[in-house]
Amino acid sequence: MKKLLIQSSLLSIFLFQAFISVAQYSGDTFAKAKQSKKANLTYVYSEAPGFAAEVNGQVEGVCVDVMSDFEFYLLDNYGITVNSTMVKDHADNFTAYLDAVKKSSNGVFGLSNTTITQKRKSIYKFSPAYITNIGMMLTHSDVPTLSDISKISEVFAGKKAVSVKGTTNEDQILNIKKKYFPSLEIEYVNSFEEVMDKVISSPDYFGNVDFTYYLDATKSNKPVKRHPAGDQAAEEFGIVMPKNSDWAKPFAEFLTEEYRTSPSYRKIIAKHLGPNALQLLDAVAGGN
């Protein structure tokens, strides 16, 4: 009998863990919210400086302010009052954050520096792009400047790349390894904060990160160097949703080009990313 009880308990624990791993988070559907005029939404975030980061116990950033504007849009245009919950369980693990959103349902939104790709669009739903990003190759400031990407195996000889699995930044590193640096070793970490820690602490590493990490590092006078020869082509970030979400339609109505060029949106960018970010984004938009 005791053995059966133990086996039963173990089975219950296993089934509970399996349930938790599959059914992560949920929120109200847009269809339900239109009827009830209320929406309980869940925001899952992963730490990304300027986009979604915990400051004095509160999550702040571009994504948070964009969601706040979306909430006002829903109230003004649909009469829907939003009650939102911020989930911090996956703040330090970008891969786990994406997995959590994928396994969630309905009114769940992922807030981070999440690149919109064709592969991800087959797994998730996305808002329209809320910002254009440039992936930058960074090293410690003591490292000689890489002026030609095809020479990277010579200039960066003996160095390791550091990256986060399942990201477009990793794709860039893998592309460099395939084309120019077959012997390159790649060390994986859970977050881009860890990538920056490695790069800043030692000239033996290099990484590909989003431009905001570079701006944040230079603003803090950290020993970092950008290598423009290794910059990644412009890409776009979006708010990510579970595949079964019906919130993509109202989000597309809200997050238009008119919104992205509005004074209020530019104020959000300047507030969280700094005036240099506005200049960089304007240059990207102008093709310079």
Structure explained in plain terms:
This is Transporter substrate-binding domain-containing protein. Residues 1-23 form the signal peptide. It comes from Marivirga arenosa. Keywords: Signal. This protein has 288 residues and is α/β, with parallel strands linked by helices. The protein folds into 2 domains: 25-133 and 236-285, Periplasmic binding protein-like II (D-Maltodextrin-Binding Protein, domain 2, 3-Layer(aba) Sandwich); 135-233, 3-Layer(aba) Sandwich (D-Maltodextrin-Binding Protein, domain 2), CATH 3.40.190. The chain has helices at residues 2-22, 30-36, 62-78, 94-102, 118-121, 152-155, 168-179, 192-201, 211-219, 248-254, 257-260, 263-273, 275-285, and strands at 26-27, 38-45, 53-55, 58-60, 81-87, 105-106, 108-111, 124-126, 131-133, 135-140, 160-164, 186-189, 205-210, 224-226, 235-237, 240-242. The chain has a 5-stranded mixed β-sheet. The protein has a 3-stranded parallel β-sheet with strand order 5-2-7, sandwiched between helices. A two-stranded parallel sheet has the order 1-6. Strand 3 (53-55) and strand 4 (58-60) form a beta hairpin. The termini are far apart. The model is unreliable at 2-23 (pLDDT under 50).
